[in-house]
Amino acid sequence: MSLTRVILTSGRALDLTELRMTSTYGGMLEGYPCKLVNDMAIHGLLNTARQTRPSSPVHLVPPHLDRPDQQAGPFGPVEILPPVACVGSFRSTALDPAHDPVLHRSSLTVVWFQPTPRVPSGEDGEEALRGIDWEGWRRTSSCRTGGNALDLERAPDTSMNGMTTTSDRQLILGTMDFGTRVDTGRAFAILDCFVAGGGVWLDTANCYSFWNDPSGVGGASERVIGAWLRARPGTRDAVRIATKVRQNPLVPHSWPQSAEGLSARAVHAGVEESLARLGVDHVDLLWAHAEDRDVPLEETVGAFGELVAKGAALRVGAANHAAWRVERARSLAREQRVEPYTALQLRHSLVQPRPYTPLPEAGHRLLTAEDLDLARSEGLAVWAYSALIWGSYVRPDKPLPTAYDHPGTARVLAVLDEVAADLRATRNQVVLAWLMRQGIDPIVGVSRVEQLEEALTARQVSLTDAHMTRFEEAR
Ligand SMILES: NC(=O)c1ccc[n+]([C@@H]2O[C@H](COP(=O)([O-])OP(=O)(O)OC[C@H]3O[C@@H](n4cnc5c(N)ncnc54)[C@H](OP(=O)(O)O)[C@@H]3O)[C@@H](O)[C@H]2O)c1
Q1: d(C-alpha 444, C-alpha 441), whole Å
Q2: H or E stretch including 98?
Q3: Which of 107, 328, 384, 402 is the most exposed place for a label (fewest CB within 10 A)?
Q4: Cα 169 to averaged position of ligand 1 atoms, centre (Å)
Q5: Are residues 20 and 96 in contact, defined by beta-carbon separation less than 8 angstroms?
C-alpha cells in the first residue's frame, strides 16, 4: 500500500511508501547557510536514508541552491537550500520487461529538497524529483550528480534465478596512494564520492606509502584521511576506518631492515601515532600488516587484545598471514581471554599467477583455498587487495604481469568478456562482482573519481550460478 503515487516525467509511476520531512535548517544553532553547512545537512540525510532502508540504494536529487547577494563569511558565500528536506522510499514495477513486474520490483530511497511541506502526488511534485532517471540504472552513474542512485532490480526476499541479494555487498576504498601518488584535493573528491555512493570502509596503513614518499616513512595516507574528516564535520560516523601496523620503517628509507614489527611496544606506539594522524579516538579495525616471526605470537595477540579492551580498536584482523598462524593466534586469544582476529586480508583476483611463482611485490601474499576454508568455518571477514591488478584487466599500458602468463588466464579472460557482454558491465565490474558473490570484500585503489564510480557500480552486477560455474571451470 502506498501513501501516494508519483508520476515521473518519463511516465513511470512510483509508489511512495514512506516519507520523512524535516526542516532543512531547523537544527542550526549558529553560523549561516553555506556550502560546508549544506554538505553536512546532505550527508546527514543520506545517512538517515541508508539507515532507514539499508537494503535500498539511495539517490540524492541535486538540490536547487539559492545564492543571495549577501556578504560572504569565513566559510564562503551564502548558499541556501530549499526549506524542507525529504527522505522518501519509492517502489515501481520491474525495470527489465522480461521480469515479472510485481515480483521483481525496483526500489529506491530518494533524498530531495522542496519549498513547502506538501506531499508529492501524481504530477504535482518537484520537477527535479519527477525527473529521476529510473530506467537509467544500467548506465554508469555519477556520484556527484546523485548517480549513487544505483537502481537495482531486486528479486523478492528469497534468492531467485541464481541472483543474490545485494544488500550486503560492499567495496572497501583503498587509500594507499593518498598523499603521495594522489594529491589531497583529488583524495578528498574520491572520499566524498565514496561516501555519497554508499561506501563505508576505508583501508589504510601506518606505512602508506613510505616507498613513494620523499620522507622515507609512512603516514601520508592517514594524514589525508584525518584532514578530510576535519573538513567534513560529522563524517566520522559515516565511515569505518581500518589501519595496519607492522611495516612502517623506524629509520627513513630503511625497509625492511627497520620495519617496526609486531612487538607489544611497536604495536602500541604504532597505533597511538595512527590515531593522532587520523585525528580519531579509535579505529574500527586494526590489522597486523604481516607476520613478525621474531616476536612471540602471544605478545602480539596480547597487545592487539589490549588495544581492543581499551577501545582504541573495535576489532582486529590479520593481513598476509598463513592460515595456520591466524588460527594459532585465535587460539592464544581465547587462552588470554582477549579479542581474536576476525578478519583476513590477502591478495586475490579472478586471474591467478602460476602456482609457486614468487610475487615481485614485497609483502604480498595470495589468498589460498585454505584461507577461505578457515574464514568460512570460523565466520571471518575476507578482504581482497589488488583485486583489479592495478587496472591490468582493461589497460594496455598496464599488461598483466608475467606471472599470469599461462593458458588459464586466456581461458578466464575469454569467459570474462562473454559474461561482461551478457551483463552489460565492464571487465572490472565483473571481477569485483565475482569476488562479492563469494562473500569476499574487494579493496579498490583508485586515483580518479571515474575509476571509483565504475567500481561502485559493480555492487549492482549480479552473477548467476551459471556464470560462477563458467569461471570456476575456466580457472
Ligand atoms: N595488505 C596489503 O598488504 C595490501 C597490499 C596492497 C594493497 N592493499 C590495499 O588494497 C588497496 C588497493 O590495492 P592496489 O592499489 O594494490 O590494487 P588495485 O586496486 O588493483 O589497483 C589500483 C590502481 O588500479 C587502477 N585502476 C583502478 N580502477 C580502475 C579502472 N576502473 N580502470 C582502470 N584502471 C583502474 C588505478 O591505477 P592508476 O592510478 O595508474 O590510474 C589504481 O591506482 C590499497 O589502496 C590498499 O588499501 C593492501
Answers
A1: 9
A2: none
A3: 402
A4: 19
A5: no
Expressed in angstroms, the distance from the first to the final Cα of the chain is 47
CA–CA separation, 254 and 247 (whole Å): 11
Which are the contacts of 199, defined by CB distance < 8 A and separation ≥ 6?
170, 171, 172, 173, 239, 456
pLDDT in tens, 215-269: 999 999 999 999 999 999 889 988 999 999 999 999 999 999 999 999 999 999 9
Query: Separation of 388 CA from ligand 1 center, angstroms?
Result: 7
Give yes or no for residue 447 CB within 6 A of ligand 1. yes
- How confident is the model over 14-28, as pLDDT tens digits? 999 999 999 998 877
What confidence category does residue 201 fall into, taking pLDDT thresholds of 50, 70 and 90?
Answer: very high
Cell triple for 41 = 545537512
* DSSP-assigned letters across all residues of 277-320: HHT-S-BSEEEE-S--TTS-HHHHHHHHHHHHHTTSBS-EEEES
Alpha carbon of 121 to ligand 1 centroid (Å): 46
Ligand 1 mean position, distance from CA 90 (Å): 35
Whole-angstrom Cα distance, residue 93 to residue 123?
Answer: 18
Interatomic CA distance for residues 443 and 455, integer angstroms: 10
CA of 385 to the centre of ligand 1 (A): 8
Please write the tens of the pLDDT for every residue from 378-419.
999 999 999 999 999 999 999 999 999 999 999 999 999 999
Is ligand 1 within 6 A of the CB of residue 401?
Answer: no
Q: How many helical (H) and strand (E) elements, i.e. helices and strands, does the chain have?
A: 12, 14
- Note whether 222 and 229 are within 8 A (CB): no
Q: Is the CB of 388 under 6 A from ligand 1?
A: yes
The answer to whether 367 and 346 have CB atoms below 8 angstroms apart is yes
| One-letter amino acid for residue 328 of the chain | R
- What is the signed CA dihedral for 21, 90, 134, 444, rounded to 10 degrees? 80
Backbone angles phi, psi at 240, to 5 degrees: -120, 140
Euclidean distance between CA atoms 163 and 250, whole angstroms: 49
Angstrom distance (rounded) from CA 357 to CA 412:
19
Residue 139, classed as helix, strand or coil, is coil
Domains annotated on the chain, with CATH: 4-153 (no CATH), 172-474 (3.20.20.100)
How far apart CA 210 and CA 225 sit, in angstroms, is 16
3-state secondary structure of 89: strand
Q: Where are the alpha helices (DSSP H) in 424-464?
A: 427-437, 449-457
Which residue CA neighbors atom 11 of ligand 1 most closely?
A: 174
Percentage above 90 pLDDT, the chain? 73
The residue nearest atom 33 of ligand 1, judged by CA position, is: 391
